[in-house]
Amino acid sequence: MIVAFLGTAGSGKTTMAGSFGRYLEEQGHSVAYVNLDTGVRKLPYEPDLDVREIVTVEELMAEGYGPNGAIVESYDRLLSEVGRIAREILKLDGEREYTLIDTPGQMESFLFHEFGVKLMESLSDPLLAYLFDPEILKRPHDYCFVRFFALMIDLRLGTTTVPVLNKIDLLSEEELNRHKKYLEDIEYLTARLKFDPTMQGLLAYRMCSFLPEVSPPVRVVYASAKDGRGFDELETLSYEHYCTCGDLT
């Protein structure tokens, strides 16, 4: 089973990959780790495949590139290696029960670069966990944004995408329940948006009104890379994704 972690910088992708991998190993599963971040310096896991063996941001900056230019150039150079990287990931997938992919810290360098698209297209039914931070959930239309962004990731990369609210260890029970209500009950969210007089509210209302028609069946995972909450749910979703008798409702 291939599970990839995607999210904005600071969303906890790398920590999640390491912690979830250790959880799976404690459950008796064999796990392979893949690092696709050319700029990371330290990892909480030992990668079985590491793109830093091909190119690093640090090396490119030594050539004269600035930080952003080095990131873009690193994936330009990896693009020619995407076939080989995909084959190595598929080989790991055949040898281990789980292969966890840690994507770049700067999400756009994977999501909007052809390297990320071609790689995901070359893999065998990967499940993608889209991590987002509770800090961005301030107003009703923020929840609409999160649900649609997960759908756009699915559209861009062609992968089944599961929204994962990470860092729930930072939330009170009341805060967590409020997030769950907005994220899971689209009718409730739409009703709240209907009375939002702002242009953002109107746009979100119209979008959420037809979200059930365009969104595939999926459920949100509430997790903490620090204390392990939600790992059992993520494991279950991973299994259901590969099981012909299951779905992600």
Account of the protein in words:
- It is built from twelve helices and seven strands.
- It is of the alpha/beta class and 249 residues long.
- The chain has a domain at 2-134 and 160-169 and 218-244: P-loop containing nucleotide triphosphate hydrolases (Rossmann fold, 3-Layer(aba) Sandwich), CATH 3.40.50.
- The protein has a seven-stranded parallel β-sheet, with helices on both faces.
- The radius of gyration is 18 Å and the shape is globular.
- It starts with a strand and ends in a 7-residue tail after the last helix.
Keyword list:
about 250 residues; seven-stranded parallel beta sheet; about 15% strand
Mean pLDDT: 92
What is the CATH superfamily of the domain at 2-134 and 160-169 and 218-244? P-loop containing nucleotide triphosphate hydrolases
| CATH class membership of the domain at 2-134 and 160-169 and 218-244 | Alpha Beta
Radius of gyration: 18 Å
CATH topology of the domain at 2-134 and 160-169 and 218-244: Rossmann fold
Report how far the terminal alpha carbons are from each other: 19 Å
What's the tally of helices?
Answer: 12
| Spatial strand sequence of the major β-sheet | 3-2-4-1-5-6-7
Q: What is the beta-strand fraction?
A: 5-15%
The total count of strands amounts to 7
Low-confidence stretches: none
Q: Please outline the major beta sheet.
A: 7 strands, parallel
Order of helices and strands: EHEEHHHEHHEHEHHHHEH
The computed structural class is alpha/beta
Give the % helix.
Answer: 40-55%
User: Architecture of the domain at 2-134 and 160-169 and 218-244, CATH level 2?
Assistant: 3-Layer(aba) Sandwich
Shape: globular
